[in-house]
């Protein structure tokens, strides 16, 4: 996708905040525990390579991604750290992953069975992390017999596989009610016992577990959303650490005009001025990830909230202004402006989603500007 490097809209990524957020967590780790920075989906929209570099400087010893290509991009950029692909990937790409020293989540025996002959043919060894499905219902082994069979298969194919890790993923580590978390941790320990020996890495914690279930165990954590300065639980639980959001989204007024009472604004004429009013145009739209459902939400201009009026267009939207702001005045969609702030959580509340989704949606057309 073409990035809009000449446009007047940008995401500002505060790498200093990311560094600080990682360092805060490094200080909370148990002895010997490692931190893997989760940088999938272009580091939740922040920019994968810059974030990876920053996280590494702050102490991260590995990276988690979701798909093979994200792992390849890290290798191409020269990262020689552990790179774990968390999702189920095509087993027929086993050689590509092994050649690039990517570790991969294994969700079933069939993956190993398909990969083994391909790896053998090329004398390659693939690092694998067995996923245990303890209640997420997504990927992984659900019972002891299957875990044993996978371990056995790996043991019989030592020239093809390195048994590097086991892990699970929590569905409810971010809620007040801890009962389901307890169910999952119990199940994990039960499945773990089916193994005759433990691999190098045992990892269970995502950000939420790292925040509110520090005793969940394992010798690595998969640190995602909290690294970016956002609360994994949304507004439900209070964070034990003072993290700082790293992402701001800014643009500017490209046009300010006084429109007459009765004027319609945007497609479908969903908004009609009930008085003469100043209307500003912002050059950013749903193709940039500022979704149509943000109609009626607000932006910050010179420290004042201004409502988004009319439908969000593909590349532009309009705001109602309290006065004739100058053309070129900064518009903050996410971030601080004056003494006020719009958070990704605020945007998520309005769009009835989670902040993860708001940030992942900001498209590659919006250039990322990095502040140290
Ligand atoms: C995305 C993901 C994470 C990171 O989750 P956060 O809530 O961002 O910390 C950790 N583990 C797995 C398996 C994931 O898919």
From TrEMBL:
<keyword id="KW-0663">Pyridoxal phosphate</keyword>
<feature type="modified residue" description="N6-(pyridoxal phosphate)lysine">
    <location>
        <position position="40"/>
    </location>
</feature>
<comment type="pathway">
    <text>Amino-acid biosynthesis; D-alanine biosynthesis; D-alanine from L-alanine: step 1/1.</text>
</comment>
<feature type="domain" description="Alanine racemase C-terminal">
    <location>
        <begin position="246"/>
        <end position="371"/>
    </location>
</feature>
<dbReference type="InterPro" id="IPR020622">
    <property type="entry name" value="Ala_racemase_pyridoxalP-BS"/>
</dbReference>
<dbReference type="Pfam" id="PF00842">
    <property type="entry name" value="Ala_racemase_C"/>
</dbReference>
<dbReference type="InterPro" id="IPR001608">
    <property type="entry name" value="Ala_racemase_N"/>
</dbReference>
<feature type="binding site">
    <location>
        <position position="314"/>
    </location>
    <ligand>
        <name>substrate</name>
    </ligand>
</feature>
<feature type="active site" description="Proton acceptor; specific for L-alanine">
    <location>
        <position position="267"/>
    </location>
</feature>
<keyword id="KW-0413">Isomerase</keyword>
<dbReference type="InterPro" id="IPR029066">
    <property type="entry name" value="PLP-binding_barrel"/>
</dbReference>
<comment type="similarity">
    <text>Belongs to the alanine racemase family.</text>
</comment>
<feature type="active site" description="Proton acceptor; specific for D-alanine">
    <location>
        <position position="40"/>
    </location>
</feature>
<protein>
    <recommendedName>
        <fullName>Alanine racemase</fullName>
        <ecNumber>5.1.1.1</ecNumber>
    </recommendedName>
</protein>
<dbReference type="InterPro" id="IPR000821">
    <property type="entry name" value="Ala_racemase"/>
</dbReference>
<dbReference type="Pfam" id="PF01168">
    <property type="entry name" value="Ala_racemase_N"/>
</dbReference>
<dbReference type="InterPro" id="IPR011079">
    <property type="entry name" value="Ala_racemase_C"/>
</dbReference>
<feature type="binding site">
    <location>
        <position position="138"/>
    </location>
    <ligand>
        <name>substrate</name>
    </ligand>
</feature>
<dbReference type="InterPro" id="IPR009006">
    <property type="entry name" value="Ala_racemase/Decarboxylase_C"/>
</dbReference>
<comment type="function">
    <text>Catalyzes the interconversion of L-alanine and D-alanine. May also act on other amino acids.</text>
</comment>
